[in-house]
Amino acid sequence: MPYEYREVKCPWCDQIFMWNKTGGEGLLVYEYRLKSTGEYVARAKCPSCEMDMIVLDHILAGIAVDDDRLERIGVRGI
Question: Which residues face 20 on adjacent strands?
Fold first, then answer.
């Protein structure tokens, strides 16, 4: 599987970093989706301040996981 990267800007510390779109997310406790469309969105972690953020397609800056535009969904354990 080829790797696919894109730039993301952290909304807290303004660090711009390369995020692997196809990389593993690690252990997921929650998934997030947009309330307006029901579309699931990806999560990233800033390598500088280590804060989680949501990455939206075609938008440089990430958004906070507690943003009003998002719905948080718990992921069941195995």
Answer: 5
